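Researcher: Next entry in the queue.
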Amino acid sequence: MGRIVSVQPLSSAPDAGVRIEVDAAGLAPRPIALGDSIAVSGVCLTVVDLRGGIFAADVSRESLSKTAGLDAPGAVNLETALALGDKLGGHLMAGHVDGVGEIVRMAPAGESTELVVGVPADLAIYMAPKGSVAVNGVSLTINRVTDRDGVCEISINLIPHTIAATTFALLASGARVNIEADLLARYVVRARDCDPIR
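Model: Structure for this entry, 198 residues:
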């Protein structure tokens, strides 16, 4: 985990993005360099300045309009980019957020916590039981998918380690979260729906 400590507009224009400063002490001892890609609550950002354990990244107005949690100081999940040859401990994520969901509930489920997230209807096609999804940049497995009345809800079990190592302990019903669909699901759906240009 890290923390956004500062958010400043990049200009006075109404469509200006922001520069965020992130305390990334939680990434130690992994080195950070200018130009590195770091996922901040699931959003792939580029390091544009670096001072000690704090890095800066510019976030466009477009990105701000399609994501949650990058417009104000607060706790964030951090993950450095995967290098070729690194161990893959979850599913492949690009840091390209597909939409913003909302936590419906978090409730005890044995030793775990059940997380139920309402997903935008246009992303429902990518959600599958035992499939993968990234919520605020955390690779998770979907247990159940419920489609009803134009709403898609996904149910996920969070183990205690996941809650302790991420911002989930700070979230509650109604919180907005970044959703990234599984990369492979995107391509499968695109291939199925594509009408080849002739």
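Model: Residues 99-193 form a domain with the Elongation Factor Tu (Ef-tu); domain 3 fold (CATH 2.40.30.20).
Researcher: Noted, moving on.
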